[in-house]
Amino acid sequence: MKRAMATLFAASTILCGSVVTVLAQQPQTPDAQYMAEVLSAAPRAVARDAAVVRLEKDGTWRTLRKGRNGFTCLVLGTDRMCNDANSMEFVRALAKHAPPPDKVGISYMLAGDTGASNTDPFAKGKTATNHWIVTGPHIMVFGPPSKALNYTRAKDPDPNKPYMMWVGTPYEHAMIPLGPPK
Questions:
Q1: Cα–Cα distance between 145 and 123 in angstroms, integer?
Q2: What is the pTM of this model?
Q3: Strands (E), 17-155
Q4: Poorest-confidence range of 27-41, 102-116, 154-168?
Q5: Around Cβ 106, how many Cβ atoms within 10 Å?
Q6: Residue ranges per domain, the chain?
Q7: Residue-by-residue DSSP string for 92-105
């Protein structure tokens, strides 16, 4: 999910375009508050030395703090995450509809998420058929080895137990809940 940002991913017009539209309609959170919010996505030991980037209204990424541990914390849409470099490559590939890297990556989302389709990586909102799921605090494991974990591949899994998201797509990854949804 993680990039330093400008070099690790160029915002796609699909993902970032809709995020930019939302940003343009909302008042911007002050940088200090934004940093506190995004850093809450990772354990303190990771957050302490992570880079922090912010998507600007024009679709560019601004680095608020350089990192020293290979993790980057950010908000995509409404979800806070801290991603290692491999996860940032994964997120960039997803945004561009490009093949994801063949690397293991870890992403922390200790604040949980606001929901996503469990079957369609490009869904923009909940529908009657896209198996919307909200997961509480969790980590994500990206890359081919995540499939070897043998977690449920159900379209409507219990979000309190590990499961695979976006099964059968190139973006399939493991979701490992650490607590119940809020």
A1: 25
A2: 0.83
A3: 51-55, 61-65, 71-76, 79-84, 105-109, 116-117, 132-133, 138-142
A4: 27-41
A5: 21
A6: 5-177
A7: HHHHHTPPPPSS-E
